[in-house]
Design the sequence.
């Protein structure tokens, strides 16, 4: 199922790029636009507002602090499969082929 805010992505692209430039200036230059967008869809806008206005979306983007994003990214990386379990070992074998 697509997120209802997905239709606004192109319209707020400039705000996303501005936030990525800010992150790069602060030393977080490895964050991509799709990773940042995924943060908003899965964390910030988990419960979408049906009557959202574009200025509210831009405000959410511009008010994001790098620490909030990095906390999210850290938690998501900890949810990744454990390479030392049976399931993780199989995935590791596939990667190393």
Sequence:
């Amino acid at each position: 199922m697509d997120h209802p805010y997905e239709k606004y992505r192109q319209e707020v692209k400039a705000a996303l790029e501005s936030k990525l430039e800010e992150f790069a200036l602060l030393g977080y230059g490895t964050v991509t636009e799709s990773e940042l967008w995924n943060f908003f869809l899965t964390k910030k806008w988990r419960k979408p507002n049906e009557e959202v206005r574009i200025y509210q979306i831009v405000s959410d983007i511009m008010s994001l602090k790098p620490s909030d994003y990095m906390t999210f990214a850290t938690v998501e990386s900890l949810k990744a499969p454990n390479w030392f379990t049976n399931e993780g070992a199989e995935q590791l074998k596939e990667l190393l082929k």
Summary: The radius of gyration is 16 Å. The CA atoms of residues 21 and 32 lie 10 Å apart. The mean pLDDT is 89.
